[in-house]
Amino acid sequence: MRLAQFFRPKLLVALEGYNRERLNTDVQAGVTVGVLALPLAIAFAIASGVKPEAGIFTAIIAGFIISAIGGSRVQIGGPTGAFIVVVFGIVTQYGLANLLICTIMAGVMLLLMGAFKLGNMIKFIPHPLVVGFTNGIAVLIMLSEVRDFFGLKEELPAEFSHKLRALYHGLPTLDLVTTLLALASVAGIWFYPKTWAKRLPAPIVVLAVATVAVALLNLPVETIGTRFGGIPEGLPAFDMPEFTFATLRYLFAPAMTIALLGAIESLLSATVADGMIDDKHDPNQELIAQGVANIVTPFFGGIPATGAIARTATNVRAGSTSPISGMVHALTLLLIVLIAAPLAKNIPLATLAAILMVVSINMGEWDSFTTLRKYPRGDSAVLLASFALTVMFGLTVAVEVGMVMSVFFFIHRITELTHVSVAEESPHEDDGEATLLRKAVPEGVMIYRVFGALFFGAADKLESVLAQQHDEPEVLILKMDEAISMDASALHALENLHRKLKKHGKHLILSGPHTQPYFLMHEGGFFDEIGRQNVVANVANALKRARELLDEKRVAQQP
User: Fold this and answer.
1) Whole-structure pTM value
2) Which candidate, 84, 189, 132, places its Cα nearest to that of 365?
3) What distance in Å separates the CA atoms of residue 162 and residue 287, rounded to the nearest whole number?
4) Choosing a second label site near 188 at 20 to 30 A (CA), which of 76, 292, 352, 519?
């Protein structure tokens, strides 16, 4: 029973009432997506700095696992463009062997996220941050493909500034034939009839035409065969990555980057799919599937995998009804590798670069830059900063700085909404009276209205209450029915306020504290400190208690 609660693949639910008609539809959708996934898997792998078969094996193995045990009915998993920059940076800095270890570590992290039900935590990542780093990744993908797109001879380093310098110095080596083939490939994808795309995706048609043209015309362009020697004709072999525990601490940061990006991408893709099929995915089960896939795939030479939005959308449009289509997509890729691998040696890198150029253009939300004025200034700053930092310094820095900025601006906004002011009017009926002035507030009594969230960013507003008055009131009433929450910093400020009043023989009364502040003050012992008789339900009772305290003081002062 516990296992069923922990492990609930969407496949088990989707197969209820399954029939031959749905199977035929799923098989057709799976074959369509499998054909589309082939050029993308090869292109993503090459752009990431690894061999093309690494992308294909990842699409096969991870794609099958994510569909079989995932939490989405139609999610397609595999290598994606978002990982290109991250993977290329890890390969350049740490080497291919350590990339495999990073991927396994990231898989364990994703598995733990799902096991501890952290899938819903992804929604706390601000949208401007996601848009910013997604657009930044798109720009970096474009830059990484410039070399193959124009046939440049210059090798491209990982750092942004060095990459720009290398591209500038490599411009004189531009190859006209390669450039024309790449431009023709972009045009073919861009102007491909949409009505045909449902049955045969544009990238695979353009790739096939370009490959045949290179083979028949003997075009002098670089191909998979000239650079990599082709693609292996067979199943991937199991291979244990070599690692030492001493290196794990250096790989934790890049592994965490892979895990977070994989979680964000997969859950965003699943959410988009939900809107297309009117369904609800299980985010925790999806993270478990992503974790298992990224743990298993590296043992067969694979790279990081996550949910692929474009392939998932294609799967939906092709008529998918269950995860069976995703599993068929993986088997289709496997069949292609076993049968057509020898033909891959003639695939031109220029066409693969063109495909990735189009992918990067489509993945970016470029209109967000033209609508920045519609956003709050803080959101605009987060979007621009995360975009610039992703391009110049990498995704890890962008996410770290973007999250800090988002938290800062959030605190600032909430602080601006929190008010502690003299309560001259009540916003709602209170014991049949609309204003506090009608309650005949006795001389020496001051009522303050607390509105909003009392937390560390707004705690000083409590501390400044007494500073607003030239003379301390004999009794200070805090009207707290509109204070929706409180943290330890605000409680500390409230304790200091009470102690300052008590030191001068004054009194503090709390009127109508909300549920969360009430329990925090109760558990923190503040009610015992202030006196439980000084915590009342409404302003009328607070004024009654204030009169009692004033009468007690007058009696005490009489000779």
Assistant:
1) 0.79
2) 132
3) 36
4) 76
Say which residue the tokens 């209820």 belong to: 16
24: number of Cβ within 10 Å: 11
* pLDDT score for 1: 42
Could you say which residues of the chain have pLDDT below 50? 1, 425-434, 437-438
- Residue pair 148/222 in contact (Cβ under 8 Å)? The answer is yes
3-state secondary structure 434-466: CCCHHHCCCCCEEEEEEEEEECCCCHHHHHCCH
Contact (Cβ atoms closer than 8 angstroms) between residue 417 and residue 447: no
Dihedral sign for Cα atoms in the order 195, 199, 202, 207: negative
- pLDDT score recorded for residue 334: 93
Structure tokens at 214: 């290179």
| Structural domain 419-557, CATH architecture | 2-Layer Sandwich (3.30)
Q: What is the DSSP letter of 174?
A: -
Secondary structure (H, E, C), 87-148? HHHHHHHHCHHHHHHHHHHHHHHHHHHHHCCCHHHHHHCCHHHHHHHHHHHHHHHHHHHHHH
Residue entry with tokens 């929604």: 123
Ramachandran angles phi, psi of 223, nearest 5°? -125, 175
Q: Match 């014991």 to its residue by tokens.
A: 431
Indicate left, alpha or beta for 108 from its phi (over 0: left) and psi (-120 to 50: alpha): alpha
Strands across the sheet with 475-486, in order? 419-422, 445-454, 475-486, 507-511, 535-536
The per-residue DSSP string of 295-327 comes to HHGGGGT----EE-HHHHHHHHHTT--STHHHH
Q: Where are the domains of the chain?
A: 21-341+349-374, 419-557
- Rounded Cα gap, residues 257 and 241, in angstroms: 20
* Beta bridge partner(s), residue 536: 511
396-405 contact pairs (CB < 8 A, 24+): 396/253, 396/254, 396/257, 398/132, 398/133, 398/136, 399/129, 399/133, 399/257, 399/260, 402/126, 402/129, 402/132, 402/133, 403/125, 403/126, 403/129, 405/378, 405/381
Task: Please say whether the beta carbons of 480 and 417 come within 8 A.
Answer: no
Q: Match 């204003």 to its residue by tokens.
A: 435
Query: Taking a C-beta distance cutoff of 8 angstroms, is the pair 111, 163 a contact?
Result: no
The whole-angstrom separation of Cα 54 and Cα 57 is 5
Which of 51, 114, 59 lies closest to 335 in space, CA to CA? Answer: 59
pLDDT tens digits, residue range 410-434?
Answer: 888 888 888 888 875 444 444 444 4
Cβ pair 539, 447 in contact under 8 A: yes
SS3 175: coil
The span from the CA of 144 to the CA of 124, in Å, is 31
How confident is the model over 216-274, as pLDDT tens digits? Answer: 999 999 999 998 888 887 777 888 877 777 778 889 999 999 999 999 999 989 988 99
The pLDDT value given to residue 2:
52
Rounded distance between C-alpha atoms, residue 48 and residue 83, angstroms: 8
> What is the reported pLDDT for 77?
96
Please give the Cα distance from 112 to 104 (Å, whole number): 12
Distance of CA 100 to the CA centre of its chain: 23
